[in-house]
Amino acid sequence: MTRRTGIGFLMASVFLCSLGTAQAGSFFKVGEPAPNFTLTSLEGQKVSLEQYKGKVVVLGLFHICQPCLIQSTNLQKVSEAIQNKPVAIVGVNSSGDSQANVSEFLQTFPVKVTYPYLLDPDQTTDKLYGGGKFIPNVYVIDQQGLIRWQRVGNFFTDGTLAEHEMILAEVEKLLAPSNSSSM
Question: pTM for this structure?
Fold first, then answer.
């Protein structure tokens, strides 16, 4: 491949990634209700999004891929930072992978994931949240079940994922006394 062809390929790739993220970002608007779902955790427990009403929820939709490993790890850092606060972190393998494959994938993480990690064999959340090729997705949902922040797709325009500090800042906004009393 020539240098010129390589640069062209790189520019096309960046354009397509940012286009996909821009299109995916229009699936929901801040303030819209987060679609409810009920799935089974790796440990066999039924978990629904609705059961977390009254808490801030950080929802991550993942497949088995490197960006998802990084984003899931960022959610673990958020989980550790918000202990003893009314916040729930929930991860979903939204691509329909088997329990064995998801468990094996989680074993490759640099940290142990302690938040509920759910299996979605029918890809319900991909359908509800418009995921699929726009993965990983992170949503911050308020105490009433409304989406207040989202990052849909692999990368920001600067090539980074949603860092844990960024997610944590959005969570803290929803936990602030002025926000809690007005909701």
Answer: 0.80
